[in-house]
Design brief:
Elements lengths: L7 E5 L3 H12 L4 E5 L2 H8 L6 E5 L7 H11 L5 E5 L4 H9 L4 E4 L4 H15 L12 H11 L4 H8 L3 H15 L4 H10 L16
Helix pairs in contact: 2-3, 6-8, 7-8
Length: 208
């Protein structure tokens, strides 16, 4: 069996018994498993923590699994998502695949089939860039705030009391963490992450 000890799985299901059983099953792979009773709780965690695989049920109170899938892809387009659907619910499975799901798993869950699909997804999700999906530092967030305001690297350097080279480094790391290669996609990703209430440069003056 491959080593999955460095990978993180988010599992979402509103039934506590299912969460408990699935968590124990997934932990046998060695991966770190975080379970959520509501899709919105999972989405909140996705905005700040790295996740290598998201597994979600479809029919849940509040935000459904399909809605979570759609929002998760806005936050982390590279994230593989597996959707659990009821037996024979083909239309739902088709919707999930069209929304960006890597695969779907039918209920009732067959342990062998379930683990096989999960392992395939984890192998596929191994990030090429070690920074991809990591949380932004306070300085990177402040830099991003000024960048989104239209400030140049030189202006940002002056406001944050850093060298231009340091700002360029922060900018490069920020784009790598968010999985983007240009400013347009950076703006879109920042909006998807809800980065609207960012700290002002003044709050970071002591972090020099």
């Amino acid at each position: 069996m491959a080593d999955y000890t460095r990978q993180r799985i988010f599992f979402v299901d509103d039934e506590v018994t299912v969460r408990r059983v699935v968590s124990r099953t997934l932990e046998r792979l060695g991966a770190k498993v975080s379970c959520f009773a509501r899709a919105r709780y999972c989405l909140e965690r996705l905005r700040s923590k790295r996740c290598d695989l998201l597994i979600t049920d479809v029919k849940m109170p509040g935000m459904t699994g399909i809605e979570l899938l759609t929002e998760a892809k806005r936050v982390a387009p590279w994230l593989p998502v597996l959707v659990i659907t009821g037996y024979g619910d083909v239309p739902m499975a088709v919707r999930a695949l069209k929304a960006g799901a890597l695969d779907f798993i039918e209920k009732p869950l067959d342990r062998k089939r379930f683990l096989s699909v999960v392992e395939a997804a984890l192998q596929r999700s191994a990030p090429i860039d070690r920074l991809l999906g990591k949380a932004l530092t306070r300085m990177e967030i402040a830099m991003l705030c000024l960048l989104l305001e239209g400030k140049s690297n030189r202006e940002i350097a002056q406001l944050l009391h850093r060298s231009i080279r340091t700002i360029e480094s922060h900018r490069s790391r920020t784009m790598r963490k968010l999985g983007v290669t240009n400013v347009v996609d950076l703006v879109r990703r920042a909006a998807a992450l809800g980065l609207t209430e960012l700290p002002t440069p003044q709050t970071l003056k002591t972090q020099r």
